[in-house]
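hey
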């Protein structure tokens, strides 16, 4: 987006520059994930324009208590299969939680891939994270959603969605089971290795 603006000789205003700067830093996890030369150039351009106080408020933004309830439910519903984690969140009120949970769980030591999914406004949304560039997240997501939805992304992070027909409980449960089976098959895992992430 920034490249388009620069090409059109449009200088982003302070709020837009701040939002773009945050987006680049967030997507690349402060240049720790698939950052390229274009990202560095963009940050160099945006940093003098952005409002640093506003940026800090975004990064340290307060959350509603339901955030922690959803996080607790996610951890309780996370299952480990050898070096992978699959977690279904069910219905979510905040779709960003799906990617956020995936980002959190990929930090688990020894985990090479995480698939997190949940339903929101007539769709199943999915996030895939991998800890190694050779374990392609973009290929994993395309295989999981194949012929049912759309997906794409980068080497280590990707997302996708599958539309729901009527959003009934039975349809949701059936599709969630199908997604779990596909995840196991695509990642070369066996259900027999399943164990809860948090054992009570």
């Amino acid at each position: 987006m920034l490249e388009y603006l620069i090409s059109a000789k449009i200088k982003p205003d302070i709020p837009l520059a701040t939002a773009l700067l945050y987006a680049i830093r967030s997507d690349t996890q402060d240049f720790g994930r698939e950052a390229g030369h274009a990202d560095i150039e963009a940050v160099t351009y945006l940093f003098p324009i952005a409002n640093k106080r506003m940026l800090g408020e975004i990064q340290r933004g307060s959350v509603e208590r339901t955030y922690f309830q959803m996080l607790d439910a996610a951890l309780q519903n996370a299952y480990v299969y050898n070096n992978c984690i699959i977690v279904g969140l069910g219905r979510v009120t905040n779709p960003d939680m799906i990617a956020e949970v995936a980002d959190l769980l990929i930090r688990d030591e020894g985990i090479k891939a995480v698939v997190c999914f949940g339903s929101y406004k007539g769709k199943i949304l999915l996030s895939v994270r991998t800890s190694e560039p050779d374990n392609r997240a973009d290929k994993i997501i395309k295989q999981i959603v194949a012929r049912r939805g759309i997906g794409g992304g980068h080497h280590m992070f990707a997302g996708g969605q599958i539309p729901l027909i009527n959003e009934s409980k039975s349809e949701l449960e059936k599709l969630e089971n199908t997604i779990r089976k596909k995840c196991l098959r695509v990642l070369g895992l066996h259900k027999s290795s399943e164990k809860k992430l948090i054992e009570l």
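Residues 169-187 form the longest helix (19 residues). Residues 65-196 form a domain with the Diaminopimelate Epimerase; Chain A, domain 1 fold (CATH 3.10.310.40).
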